[in-house]
Amino acid sequence: MNKLVPTAVFGTMIVLGGAASAAPTTAEPARDCRTYSSVKLCGTPHPTTEQRHCITHHVNAGMTPRRATTECTTSP
Q: Over 60: is that where the pLDDT of 58 sits?
């Protein structure tokens, strides 16, 4: 269990006994995930022709390509 110990009047804290818990885990590799409007997409999308038209339309309207891809490939 970590303990926070005040070390000065300025509010500086030291964490004791938890250095290993702060390190990132290597059990789950990094994935390319994005979430827009509560819609999550991970990995590399492979849009259909219809979805590519949707993406192009939204990008031309000012949406970022990443967001347009997420919204067009995950909508029903």
A: yes
Domain interval for residue 65: 30-76
- Residue 25, classified by CB atoms within 10 Å of its CB into exposed (0-12), middle (13-18) or buried (19+), is exposed
- This prediction has a pTM of 0.57
Question: Is 14 part of any domain?
Answer: no
Would residue 69 count as lying in a domain?
Answer: yes
- 33-41 long-range contacts (CB < 8 A, ≥24 apart) are 34/66, 34/67, 34/70, 35/70, 36/67, 36/70, 36/71, 37/71, 39/70, 39/71, 39/74, 39/75, 40/74, 41/69, 41/70, 41/73, 41/74
